[in-house]
Amino acid sequence: MTTQRTSGRRKQVLAAAAVVAGLLTTAACGGGNDSGGGSKNGAAGFDAANNKVAQASAVKKGGTLKFGGAQDADSWDTTRGYYGFMWNFARYYSRQLVTTKAEPGKAGAELTPDLASGLAKVSDGGKTYTYTLRDGITWEDGKPITSKDVKYGIERVWAQDVLSGGPTYLKDVLDPDGKYQGPYKDKAADHLGLKAIDTPDDKTIVFHLPKANSDFEEMLALVSASPVRQDKDTKSKYTLHPFSSGPYKFESYNPGKDLTLVRNTNWKQASDPIRKAYPDKITVKFFSNANDLDQRLINGDIDLDINQTGMSPQGRTEALKQHKANLDNPVSGYIRYAVFPQSVKPFDNEHCRKAVIYGADHVSLQTARGGPVAGGDIGTNMLPPSVPGAEGQKYDPYELAGANKNGNVAKAKEELKACGQPNGFSTTIAVRNNKPVEVATAQSLQASLKKIGINAQIDQYDGSQTTGIIGSPANVKKKGYGIIIMGWGPDFPTVQGFGLPLWDSKYILQSGNNNYALIKDKTIDGLFDDYVNATDASKKPGIATEINHKVMEGGYYLPFVFEKFINWRSSNLANVYTTDGYSGMYDFVNLGLKNSK
Amino acid sequence: MLAYLIRRLFAAAVMLVVIIMVVFGIFFLVPKWAGVDVALSFVGKQADPAAVAGVREKLGLGDPIYLQVWEFFKGIFAGRTYSAGGDVTHCAAPCFGYSFKSEQAVWPVLTDRFPVTLGLALGAAVLWLIFGVAAGVLSALKRGSLWDRSAMVVALAGVSLPIYFTGMLSLAIFAFGLKWLNAQYVPLDQSFTGWFGGMILPWITLAFLYAAMYARITRATMLEVLGEDYIRTARAKGLREQTVIGKHAMRSTMTPILTMLGMDLGALIGGAILTESTFNLPGLGRAVLDAIRNQDLPIILGVTLITSLAVLLANLVVDILYAVIDPRVRLA
Questions:
Q1: Which residue of B has its CA nearest to A167?
Q2: Which residues pair with A578 in a beta bridge?
Q3: What is the ipTM for the molecules in this complex?
Q4: Are strands A376-378 and A426-432 parallel, antiparallel or unpaired?
Q5: Nearest CA distance, B277 vs chain A (angstrom)
Q6: Helix, strand, or coil here: B64?
Q7: Which of A527, A567, B76, B229 is the least crowded, having the fewest Cβ atoms under 10 Å away?
Q8: Within the 24-53 window of chain B, which residues sit less than 8 Å (CB to CB) from chain A?
Q9: Whole-model pTM?
Q10: Per the omega criterion (within 30 degrees of 0), is the bond before B187 cis?
Q11: What CA–CA distance (Å, rounded) separates A103 from A590?
Q12: Are strands A327-328 and A331-339 parallel, antiparallel or unpaired?
């Protein structure tokens, strides 16, 4: 009797195990295999939206576009936001004088008029920019947007003591001496005392630059140049409900939980050549668990990831196997690299830096970043492929993707000899502790360097304190950080928007420094001056190329990868494409749905 | 009893003040010792000096620690006003700080998140008490049987498997695979059935871990109690087995379980971080996780205090219940 019962229970256990295994398989499959060239469920195909428009004809007006994300924006205030996805998303509720074209790929990085009726009329040797506003542009309450609103919005960048966090290019270019104190300390009755901007009437705005800057219009395309209406400016609390000038307005926002935008009924399609405003409603839900987010994307509960930083390793593996037709693999615009601060010996010696560059196993570093698909192509130089003047892997002065891709021990040892350290040396690699992929690259680099006698210790510092720890040259020197693992993407797609804070000696700061290598090269500084003063736009890419060459020749950086992502788009998304204007992200502003119910 | 209660309350209040001081010390002194400027984590890629100064002013980072502690206490009872660069923010009492990352006062964040965590903790506690204690008692009574062995194997699995594994597994099977259960959290004030449906998996997952522990402790305690002289006497007197177990043995068995329950509930109310992040529940655990990620010190401080308070209160309740169950405690 006992034996029989036991046997029965065993059968039950086995049956239960079989059921669980079956269910797990079902859950993992999630609806069958989609090929790369389109699928039964209507997905457009692998890379179908990478630099080209997918499902454009299927778009229908209406419905709710659902975003999910593992991280909320740093701020939704147009002056304060600095995250790339925030700039992309902000086009739903904010407009600028000019913006990037709503087109895929490289064309998406070109400027086009938005609130302004045309691109700038530039005069006075590149020091005066004049814009005329369009007709019919309105705020969410129906009042017209005036040139004074644009000026006030830009003036807010000066109020850094209240509105910190956003880019300060406009402040640096329009008021390099810091004479203006910002609108909150402005004694003028209308709080519009910034001398560098004139608003002779409600339709005209004129910018007077003390010194010409060939990228000034790029800076005006940043969301920090959005108009803000004075009577709606809630200062530091503006992030909770920015007043809309775009096709959607804030309905509700719970920081870290969710955000809902609804149609701005006072926005007129005729006044806006960029935005199509397909969905009726846009929702964003924030998740603390990236795997949960990925599962909901795969399940179809969410249309796309607002963060656009790629799926987590687990979700990516499943999606690549089962739902490839829902994925795109764009270049992100970021370069991941190691940088050598010259204040830490022996990295003041060019040959010691080059020994590390030659000694590293670049394939191993690429693998640590996620491999060629999820990590990116081996980085061979320091200019992202999306920046005009970039040569991609064609420029590979150290043959990092060629003959030396697995490291060249002999060449590295030659360089060590030339630097006076034939037996190698000891150093410290600084890496953020909240970026597992960066820690993996540090470990890979450590292993390669051991082969050439460089003994590198890894210091995982508090990643949330990056600015304070590696942004202080004194601290870097004190801690002996000879190698710092970092990544950088362009604020706007030019060599100035990417490289100026990294490579120009004027940007070596005592705190908040980004020129970690402490490059003080008169040739590079001079080239940046040439670039900024260039009146002939066709010469700019050539200067960018030259700057990149000089940086690489100095051996200040060891590039790892030209980063790539695996991003998910739901089968219900229509009119979807990636754009260089937002570093390979999907262009949010004109996304629509195939089924709007 | 009243004197005992007053004594315990006073001890709890002193403990809370000590905790506040320690937490302040950790958050404001440790970065200074480490040579890290906290303000720099608030200013983005382009660290404008005015921005750094503004953040320092808002966070009061330049003030001496005693002044910061005093301002914090004052804020709890009288509210507090923060000002920098012409921007004035009032934080009404009880002001437990203000998050300049999310531009919210900490107290409303805590009160908004607290019901989610409380619902999770209480629901799971009901489940783990019912199933954990019942399984433990049955195992003790049927010691060595197949039931006992199976229950203890399951209990071992429950203790060993981390929440993020069981949570993800249950989501994969029941929410995404079979679609039997909703994996989306719905606030209670929106829909009771939606809320209940969304909480079933988190309750079961959390209860699985705790039920396992409770089953093991109940079994061990019950076995010990069943060997006591007074149980043998009760049986010898001819009492029904139900009465011996239910009235005499259970009462003694419940004492350590009650202690555990107090500690566990207190800790969970402070934030079931893993469960909340696995199931995306917007409770205190997720709030503190996000705050850690964003270096949002005021929120971390607020949740830490709430956790401490919850543990203290739970222990206080346990102490009182102890006194009810076991009169000797009052004498002690």
A1: B46
A2: A586
A3: 0.75
A4: unpaired
A5: 5
A6: coil
A7: B229
A8: 31, 35-38, 40-48, 50-53
A9: 0.84
A10: no
A11: 10
A12: unpaired
